[in-house]
Queue: 4 jobs
Job 1
Amino acid sequence: GREESLRELLPLATQVFASSDGARIVTGHDGPGAAARAISAATHAAIVVTAGERGAVWMEHAGAPLGHCPA
């Protein structure tokens, strides 16, 4: 399905931008930080997960510290 196709594409990405809902669909994790970490396990891409009024989290690459930007 859609989730499986997205997971297959992650290793090819150079940047990943996802809403927290989209990241949850792909990873199964509710929190944007946990979802960003799970995505980083599948790609070396820079990752941003947006969380509406909670702002956004990002990782510059797999293993990088998790950053947060308020809304």
Note: The chain has three helices and four strands.
Job 2
Amino acid sequence: AGPAGRLVEASGTSYAAPQVAAALAGQHTAPDAQSARAAVNRLMSEVADAGERGPDPVYGAGVLRTGEGQ
């Protein structure tokens, strides 16, 4: 949120990292390697490719689609 609680548009890894972390944290009850791999695989299945085809320097792996009512 921006000034006075208004929504603002932002981009970059500093803004994306908390969204990705929250998506992963919501899938864990306790840390372990097997569930972490499964969570990352589920997360990657929710990524929409953006920019150049495949991973790229602007969008990385793509845009995370969680919370869009898919």
Note: Helices lie at 13-25, 33-44.
Job 3
Amino acid sequence: LSGVERTFEKGGRAEAALKASYREKLLVVDESSMVSNAQMQHIVRAAERLGIPHVVFSGDRRQLSSQEAG
């Protein structure tokens, strides 16, 4: 996601090309039980900026939990 943020900082054609490449895509985050609330929020915000219409978090509650809160 840091690469996405750097591209948005540059703006212009790079940002437009990045948005176009993600339009109408589905973002799947596997093993999301290991992702903190703050990390999930970061992922969702990045998806919104990229125009990704759907984000799916999948995981197993019986596996290891996140290292951070959430």
Note: Residues 26 and 54 are 5 Å apart (CA to CA).
Job 4
Amino acid sequence: IQHKNLSNGRWQEIKFIEQMANIASEVERSLKWKEKKNTPYAEKAIERAQAIARLDPAQREAVDNFINPP
């Protein structure tokens, strides 16, 4: 995981708004790389967004269902 500090338990310590900002930053990076036609970088950024969104156990199932609908 790219966000090692967050995966080591820090994610639960930061405010919800900061969590959303982290996820949004990765989504924005993905969109910018997509505009530049750099699909591999766009995909990596969206993978990072998904990975950090899944750090919250309460949100893990929702993220998984969004990514792979039942």
Note: The chain has a mean pLDDT of 85.
